[in-house]
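Review form for a predicted model. The reviewer records the input and the model, then writes brief findings.
Reviewer: anonymous (R2)
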Amino acid sequence: MELLEQRIKEEGIIIDGHVLKVDRFLNHQIDPILMDAIGEAFTERFKEAGITKIVTLESSGIAPAVMAGLKLGVPVIFARKKPSLTLGKGSYTAVVRSYTKEETNKIYLSADFINANDRILIIDDFLAKGEAVMGLIDLVKQADATISGIGIVIEKSFQDGRKRLDQLGYPIYSLARIASLSETGVEFLQE
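Model under review:
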């Protein structure tokens, strides 16, 4: 997605040659115009997949997921990183290792909002090692729902997350695929 790649080049900050900071438009401050375009791109790709719900992880996946949900006309469910009294007794749990925070967390998804009849689109902000998406896949499988696709805003293709997901056979669509990060800038995969 050209608009997203342009924003990454202009405003992304590379930290230690492997972390891309995009908090000016995606995961701290959110650009609603860019999110609208992201939602449209995911909708174009998955509009024929019969999606009934979108699942994401709090908090950075919520904005792109909501925009895709708005355009697809389906609810968005986000997995929580901390348990809540409102989750009730019926919830699914998975363990996720955060690449940027260097910590492991349990994530939670209420069983009230997802069931075996659902066709799920998983959306996440970043794909690096694939831990967050693997955790979301685990939650969806616990509900016996069908995974109809995975949408990633920014993929770091030089890490092994995409390879892990490809082995599972789900349709994956990444809006920006980064080939490399360095002090001189960002290089994108040309497809």
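Findings: The domain at 31-171 is CATH 3.40.50.2020 (Rossmann fold).
Further findings: The chain has one domain: 31-171.
Recommendation: see findings above.
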